[in-house]
Design goal:
Layout: H1 2-8, E1 12-14, E2 24-25, E3 30-32, E4 38-47, H2 60-72, E5 88-97, E6 106-113, E7 124-131, E8 137-144, E9 146-147, E10 150-153, E11 158-161, E12 166-175, E13 188-193, H3 198-209, E14 215-221, E15 224-229, H4 235-242, E16 246-247, E17 254-258, E18 263-266, E19 271-272, E20 275-277, E21 281-293, E22 304-316, E23 321-323, H5 329-339, H6 343-355, E24 359-360, E25 362-365
Parallel strand pairs: 1-18, 17-25
Antiparallel strand pairs: 2-16, 3-13, 4-5, 4-7, 5-6, 6-12, 7-8, 8-12, 9-12, 10-11, 13-15, 14-15, 17-18, 19-24, 20-23, 21-22
């Protein structure tokens, strides 16, 4: 019966209530202090486009950039000259600097058009410094761009697939400056829970303290656990052991509803009080058809089409179904399935149960 709700109705994705919470590695539910990526951004020019670049009239910043670049290359002062190239595009370049990236290592970069260019296909990014939030340059990017989308235009129609004004360069930037962060000098490190929870934080501390001689852990709040390394200089060894410890995370009871697609996800800890549920409604079926009316032979008249509409109304009578108090997830789904209702109706019922104060879970609608 539960299978029919999940597959035939394409309505709900439900977590099995009978299964216990699985234990997961600590590295999969926490972030380690200092082990993070940093966002980089830069402004540059893509050249070599086949007439699909920025127009100089609508993109004055592209004109200024070309003038400045050529001036630095010794071409001379071009201010006031009639630049009318369509083979250059101003772009914004973004990248993520991985944690502990060393000088000389290469990272991927994203290139996005800033002006009115129609495509970056076939272009080459010129040397572009990439800065962090502190304004310092951490990497330099350059190279031919790879565009996934395409765009073609004719006299009366055009065809576009993907986004041809966004491109990517694999290993397109070289790290020029490292972020100073030395784990060996630290005597303690903090673990940030990705989903803050009092119970999970306590379990993490207990799991770490159970390994005597590695480290001592103390939960500071629902989202932070501080770990003190017993012997100075053993941070790496301690973290390599800690990140593989098995912990059973605890999650709050929640029901998530996507009203657009009719998807319902119900957590295993969801409980409801005893309620009586009745769901009924009208179904109106309208069918349109057309009949051809022709005049009699050898008579004066015209052949006309006569529309015909058939309307049928179906009313479904549904009695009350009682769902017992403090039922489990499986009992809740079986109770709703017994009424024989669809996804949108289940959504309405869950909202009504929440409004009645009988649903003991967070109801999130996305």
């Amino acid at each position: 019966m539960l299978k029919r709700v999940l597959l035939a109705l394409t309505l709900a994705v439900v977590l099995p209530a009978a299964a216990a919470q699985a234990q997961v590695r600590l590295k999969d539910i926490v972030n380690f202090e200092g082990v993070r990526s940093n966002q980089l951004i830069g402004y540059g020019l893509v050249v070599g486009l086949d007439g699909t670049g920025d127009s100089m009239r609508n993109s004055p910043f592209t004109r200024k950039s070309i003038e400045g670049m050529l001036s630095r290359l010794g071409v001379g002062n071009l201010t006031g000259e009639g630049l009318n190239t369509k083979n250059t595009a101003a772009v914004m370049v973004t990248a993520k600097l991985p944690p502990y990236a060393r000088r000389g290592s290469e990272i991927d970069i994203e290139v996005s058009s800033l002006g009115d260019a129609t495509s970056l296909r076939g272009g080459t990014l010129l040397v572009t410094p990439l800065s962090g939030a502190d304004g310092q340059i951490y990497a330099v990017g350059q190279g031919p761009v790879a565009v996934g989308g395409f765009s073609f235009e004719g006299a009366a129609a055009d065809l576009t697939r993907g986004v041809p004004t966004v491109a990517r360069i694999e290993n397109g930037a070289t790290v020029e400056q490292e972020i100073d962060f030395d784990l060996r000098r630290m005597t303690s490190i903090r673990l940030a829970l990705r989903n803050p929870d009092f119970t999970t934080a306590s379990r993490i501390a207990e799991a770490i303290n159970a390994h005597v001689g590695i480290a001592r852990a103390e939960p500071l709040d629902p989202g932070t656990v501080e770990v003190r390394v017993i012997e100075k200089g053993d941070v790496m060894e301690a973290l390599s052991t800690i990140e593989n410890l098995q912990v059973e995370p605890d999650t709050p009871a929640k029901v998530v509803i996507d009203a657009k697609s009719g998807t319902i996800v119900i957590g295993a800890d969801v409980r409801i009080d005893e309620v009586a549920i009745s769901q009924g409604g009208l179904t109106v079926s309208i069918s349109e058809s057309a009949q051809v009316s022709q005049p009699e032979p050898f008579s004066i008249g015209e052949t006309v089409i006569v529309p015909q509409t058939d309307i049928e109304v179906y009313e479904r009578d549904s009695g009350f179904a009682v769902v017992g108090g403090q039922v489990s997830l499986r009992e809740l789904v079986d109770g709703l399935n017994a009424i024989g209702i669809g996804a949108q109706e289940i959504i309405s019922i869950l909202q009504a149960i929440k409004a009645a104060g009988a649903l003991h879970a967070d109801l999130e609608i996305i």
